[in-house]
Amino acid sequence: MGYAALALLVLRLVWGLFGTEEARFSSFPPSIKNAKSHFSDLMTGKVHKHKSHNPLGALMAYALWGTLFVVIATGIAMHGSPFVSQSAQVTVTNPVVYYVSSDGYEHHDDDEHEDHDGDEVMEEIHEFFANLLLILAACHIGGVALESMLSRRNLVRAMISGTTEPRSH
After folding, report:
1. CB-based contacts of 94: which residues, under 8 Å, 6+ apart?
2. At what angle are helices 2-18 and 55-79 packed, to 10 degrees?
3. pTM (2 decimals)?
């Protein structure tokens, strides 16, 4: 799944460089200042037509792509490459040494398992960004719905077809 997501992300990045004018990154540079201004305008009922992403949509697009990249990278880092033989990916770690102390309990030396801590950290990062991706996607859907309603334009159709004509009643 990670490699399929990576392929789609790369395809979108290529489309952002060579695609239609509205899809090019130059049409919607990220700007926190412009996003704040756009948000203020929305809250006061002012709606501006944008040829491409509005400033909030631009920030969201970059946030989604960046977050997706982190999810992909950490997933691949945790599971390894399918293009390298599994025997080449195996790392040798120190064996777990258990001993029975004078109190009668089994113990082992945690210092020998520092590499597992790294795996757990990678998994936590992956999980955090995967959950963040879901939250961002939900916010994106809500933002598209709100902007469509306020601007009276079908932005979903615009995302698919590139047509940004106003909706008729």
Report:
1. 112, 113
2. 140
3. 0.70
